[in-house]
Amino acid sequence: MICSVLKNTVAIRPVRTLTFRSLSSVVAPDINDLEQEQIKQANEAYHGIVEISVSGDRGWGVFASRDLVKGERLIKITPFSFTDTPNQHSIQIDWKKHMNVDIPARFVNHCCNEANVGIKIRDEAADFYALRDIESGDELLWDYETTEYRVSENFPCNCGSSRCRGTIRGYYAHGNQVMKAYGPDFIAPYLLKKTPLK
After folding, report:
1. Which of 1, 16, 175, 196 has fewest C-beta within 10 Å?
2. Is 105 in contact with 128 (CB distance < 8 Å)?
3. Per-10-residue mean pLDDT for the chain, 198 residues long?
4. φ, ψ at 13 (rounded to 5°)
5. Which residues form the Post-SET domain (predicted)?
6. DSSP states of 24-68 as a string?
7. How far apart are CA 70 and CA 84, in angstroms?
8. Any idea what the Cα angle at residue 116 is, between residues 113 and 121, rounded to 5°?
9. Nearest-CA neighbor of 130 among 53, 83, 67, 48?
């Protein structure tokens, strides 16, 4: 069961995740009033498509509210600012350009090689698309290394995938695996260029 906490109401609903993990200890992560309101607004905006809810022991996640079809655009990502350095809530769109994203995009969790959503970058924005059919209740999972040349800080991965890379470093470390898993359509275009700008 997943617990969805929104503005003083708690809804319990069953959720199947693609993380291959047990949801034995579900605890809603601490959030402030602003984040709580942003979650409520995002859930209203994407009602009937996706829903933000608690994702086991890894915080918040984004889940399919209905069956989703391969190729369907799911989340429109509009940045609220840009930076030349990565952070926990940014998506890299060029060698020295990262867009800071808001909810729900920043709550899409990572999965190595078996993600069910991918990002297509367009101008200075991006969209999440279904990489395959996704059943209602499944968690949307994205491979961070499809856009990040080098993550802001390496971190151990606990995605649970049988093909987990162990540590998330960035495309520079696992580019061949990432390309094999997703092909060029869901790799950030700047990563397909030969070398990073100095």
Report:
1. 1
2. yes
3. 31 34 45 88 95 87 97 94 92 94 93 96 93 97 96 90 94 95 95 74
4. -150, 145
5. 153-169
6. -S--PPP--HHHHHHHHHHHHHTTTTEEEEE-TTS-EEEEESS-B
7. 33
8. 90
9. 67
Answer positive or negative: Cα dihedral of 159, 163, 169, 175. Answer: negative
How many other C-beta atoms are found inside a 10 Å radius of the C-beta of residue 83? 14
Amino acid identity of residue 172, one-letter, is Y
**Residues near 183 by beta carbon (within 8 Å), at least 6 away in sequence:** none
Question: Token pair of 193, please?
Answer: 């260029």
CA quadruple 105, 97, 159, 59: dihedral, nearest 10: -40
Q: Which tokens sit at 2?
A: 């997943």
Compute the distance between CA of residue 10 and CA of residue 115 in angstroms, rounded to an integer. Answer: 28
Tell which CATH classification among 2.170.270.10, 3.90.105.10, 2.60.40.3930, 3.60.15.10 matches the domain 2-192.
Answer: 2.170.270.10
Strand-pair category, 73-77 with 60-64: unpaired
Omega prior to 79 cis, within 30 of 0: no
Do 171 and 92 contact (CB within 8 A), yes or no? no
Pairwise CA distance, residues 185 & 118, whole Å? 9
Residue 73 CA to residue 174 CA, distance in Å, equals 26
Return d(Cα 124, Cα 167) in angstroms, integer.
28
For the record, the structure tokens of 87 come out as: 């952070």
For the chain, the domains span 2-192
